[in-house]
Specification:
Strand 5 and strand 6 form a beta hairpin. The strands form four sheets. The protein has a four-stranded antiparallel sheet with strand order 1-2-3-4, with no helix packed on it. The chain has one helix and 16 strands.
């Protein structure tokens, strides 16, 4: 059963979505499912975690969705490689402890993925943090970095294959490179309503 409208599609004919496998109840664990557009392949990835928001998928077949950072805390990120059915929890293991990603939380389940395997997500670093920042990590768990450090909310990021990230910065539109350089504000005369760029996309 498809869960709400959380459906993602890549450019090579794969779909990814949240689902309830047959025989489960509405209140039980939500899983990640994928299928081809012609319906010839359907896979349920039994992650045994309560996914909070819909997945994103790139043309290389990597699916990213939020998952439990730790028991009862859904502010982590998981990656599924549909080619090999491998799953990686980006907030677990020695690499996560060394990279610094464990200091961050995914805020609002807002994240985006490009075809180069770079994930940008809205992050915070303490439960008391009032402003959200932008963080970046690769699908293999390497390359974690905090991109912004402002006194305003940076949110709703979208990243293209060149590593340019567009996002909402204090109700304006900003861009920054994936290496943290060339951060700039593009607008100063408009006010974006809350959630206006929750589905911001870049080409």
């Amino acid at each position: 059963e498809l869960w709400e409208t959380n459906l993602a599609r890549n450019n090579v004919g794969h779909l990814a979505f949240l689902c309830f496998p047959e025989g489960t109840q509405y209140s039980e664990t939500i899983e990640i499912c994928s299928m081809t557009e012609d319906g010839s392949e359907f896979v349920v990835y039994h992650a045994h975690e309560n996914y909070e928001n819909g997945p994103v998928i790139n043309d290389s077949g990597f699916i990213v969705s939020n998952c439990e950072r730790q028991l009862g805390d859904p502010r982590g990120l998981c990656v599924i490689d549909i080619l090999y059915s491998d799953r990686l929890h980006l907030f677990e293991g020695p690499q996560a402890r060394q990279s610094g990603v464990l200091d961050s939380f995914v805020v609002g389940q807002r994240y985006n993925l490009n075809n180069e395997g770079q994930i940008v997500y809205q992050c915070a670093f303490t439960d008391e943090t009032q402003e959200s920042e932008l963080c970046l990590i690769n699908v293999d768990g390497t390359g974690f970095r905090q991109l912004t450090d402002n006194r305003i909310d940076d949110e709703s990021p979208a990243i293209n294959d060149d590593g340019v990230i567009a996002y909402v910065c204090g109700n304006q539109l900003c861009v920054i490179n994936a290496d943290g350089t060339e951060q700039r504000q593009l607008t100063d005369q408009i006010v974006l309503p809350p959630g206006a760029f929750a589905k911001l996309k870049m080409n």
